[in-house]
Amino acid sequence: MQNVAFLIERFGLLAIFLNVLLSSGGLPLPCYPALMLAAALAAPTGIRIPEIIATGAAATLIADTAWFWGGRRYGGAVLKVLCRISLSPDSCVRRTESIFTRVGPASLTFAKFIPGLSNISVALAGATGITFPIFLLFDSAGAVGFIGTGVALGSFFRRAIATGLGFFDRLGEWGILFAAAALLLFLAWKALQRQLFLRRLRIERITVAELRTLIDSGARPVILDVRSAEARRRSARIPGSIAGDPPQLVRLRESIASHSEIVVYCACPNDASAALAANELKRAGFRRVRPLLGGIDAWTEAGHALEHPPLHPAPKCGEPCGSRAGMAQAA
To answer: What global pTM score does this model have?
Structure first.
């Protein structure tokens, strides 16, 4: 354990700073092991607990500030980058936007405790126009709380951690190999979770050209926008879209005929929200449901018209809404 204590004493704060900076920057590196280790060895190494918290919080704020200004300048493009580099299958833009819409900037105080939401919530704060002082206030509270929790755990379990370090010291090089293998297994598990999540998204899609042809033919498909309320509020949408919030999807059975052609779109990487919503609708009994390939971005890039007024509510009609009369209320 003396060797480990020596390394912590010499490189501890620098190692903590780099580990937290890279983790907050988006790399799939856990930062709690380093924080807990440094806190457990604070007494023998001479590093003070406030120094550990200040170092970790500073690294977090540096990374978060970069993502905040990236979100302010590039908006949704930054959110998509974060989703793509994350190994967490839960890090969907829509989920974070929903939380952010309900709670507001205060969500930054706890977002770091929810896997996959931390960086997205920070970039979303920039994209939605939150002022930098407000962002800094809430994000600082979240950073100190998150880092402080890891340090508190290390202090509380310091005896168990010291015992474990003694065991690794006796193992010598094998202990280092074991720790490296544990990290690789963690990353492999997260990658497997992501692949399993992506497999759930495998469903037949409709292209923008096919949807345009379908509309021009007079078929009047039901078009569901399953982006978050915040995303729908701040951006344009496909003409005739119906707001398709998850709690309302199953209730659509009451207003839309099961044989209707339904197209679902979102603004997520891999059309994640749209594919999940389409699968849910299929389980609810709708037979002709397809996500829009590329979502709203693909529609925009194709040069098709967009509308800015509020979304049409889910149609309430006296006849099946897959009919022309019913769909006229949503067109």
So the answer is: 0.63
